[in-house]
Amino acid sequence: MRMRALLLGLVGASVVATASAGPELVDFPQGWETSFSLAATRDMHRGGKTIAEIFVNATGVTSGPGDVPLASGTVIVMKLYRARIDAGDQLVRDDAGRLVKGDATGALLVMEKRSGWGADYGAVRNGEWEYASFGIGGERRQIENKGCLECHGALTEFDYVFTRYEIAELRR
Ligand code: HEC
Questions:
Q1: Sign of the torsion formed by the C-alpha atoms of 68, 165, 145 and 140
Q2: How many Å lie between the centroid of ligand 1 and the Cα of residue 26?
Q3: Spacing, Cα 18 to ligand 1 middle (Å)
Q4: What is the mean pLDDT of residues 18-35?
Q5: pLDDT tens, residue by residue, 138-148
Q6: Arithmetic mean of pLDDT, 23-51
Q7: Pocket test for ligand 1, best of 25, 49, 78 (most atoms within 8 A of CB)
Q8: In whole angstroms, how far apart are CA 168 and each of 37, 42, 66, 118, 172?
Q9: Angle, alpha carbons 151-157-160 (nearest 5°)
Q10: How far, rounded to the nearest angstrom, does the alpha carbon of residue 38 sit from its chain's CA centroid?
Q11: How far is the CA of 44 from the centre of ligand 1 (A)?
């Protein structure tokens, strides 16, 4: 009986150890606002009235030119803002024609890459990337990561990162 309990204990442990894919692998990157670098600002994120700011940690910045994969340990945070709208419901633009940031939407989208991650996704795997979402204060938001994997999955030549070249530009 003791042996059986021991075996069950071991099975339990191995189930935990093989739960090796999913948003929960990604921890909230504490302190990102001061330690990450702004790589890009994109108007009309995914075609909406939203502005995306994309920040990357030092590992990402030093990963090399845009045509090489980002290094293990790279974390990318995207902070979303509502674009400002005028009284006539038109998008406000600055002198350079860019959209103007209003309030943050409250969502942070995060990609993190670690050696060995992604193996459990089979054909939909995006290299070693995982995707997650947090509120501004770091509370985890539940996501369905299938959409993240599918849309970013088209970018095989850019290591699944839309702003790969902007990140490479930060090395100088
Ligand atoms: C329909 C396509 C689509 C889906 C689905 C999608 N993204 Fe993205 N994502 C983009 C685009 C496009 C950008 C580049 C920013 C821009 O142009 O607005 C981007 C940028 C990012 C970035 C900044 C790094 C980069 O690739 O430039 C992160 C982080 C990110 N997305 C996380 C996520 C997460 C997490 C999910 C799932 C919850 C997700 N994305 C789902 C299209 C998508």
A1: positive
A2: 16
A3: 27
A4: 91
A5: 999 999 999 99
A6: 97
A7: 78
A8: 12, 16, 5, 23, 9
A9: 35
A10: 14
A11: 12
